[in-house]
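Module 6 notes. Inverse folding takes a fixed backbone as the condition and produces residue identities as the prediction. Think of it as a translation problem where the source language is geometry and the target language is the twenty amino acids. Below is one complete input and output pair. Work through it position by position during the lab.
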């Protein structure tokens, strides 16, 4: 069965950095685009970014452009989210998600359990 397991969350000060990882199993990882979404307390889940099956195409929400970078290692079945210049408003649970297509359609069909990111001094 499809499994997505996030790790790397934690508490960081404003301006700091974190790198999230998502280990995938149960499917042919290199056949699918992958994405990250987040959900803050009391808020709707919101799209953060996505990466195509090959890693050659990436997209980001406007609020993370220039600060966050998505990458993937198909040999390790892992997708990453490098987060720099973190702000308190980035505090949320971050979820890894599998896109239903190889290119970024943003139609996610499987989700991980999430990892908490807290940005606070």
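Target side of the pair, the amino acids:
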């Amino acid at each position: 069965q499809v499994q997505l397991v996030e790790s790397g969350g934690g508490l960081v000060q404003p301006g700091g950095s974190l790198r999230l990882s998502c280990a995938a199993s149960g499917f042919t990882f290199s056949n699918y685009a992958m994405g990250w979404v987040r959900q803050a307390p009391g808020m709707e889940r919101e799209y953060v970014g996505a990466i195509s099956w090959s890693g050659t195409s990436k997209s980001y929400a406007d609020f993370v452009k220039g600060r966050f970078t998505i990458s993937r290692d198909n040999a390790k079945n892992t997708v990453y989210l490098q987060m720099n210049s973190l702000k308190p408003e980035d505090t949320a649970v971050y979820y890894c998600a599998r896109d239903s297509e190889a290119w970024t359609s943003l139609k996610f069909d499987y989700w991980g359990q999430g990892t908490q990111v807290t940005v606070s001094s």
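Reference fact for the lab report: The mean pLDDT is 96.
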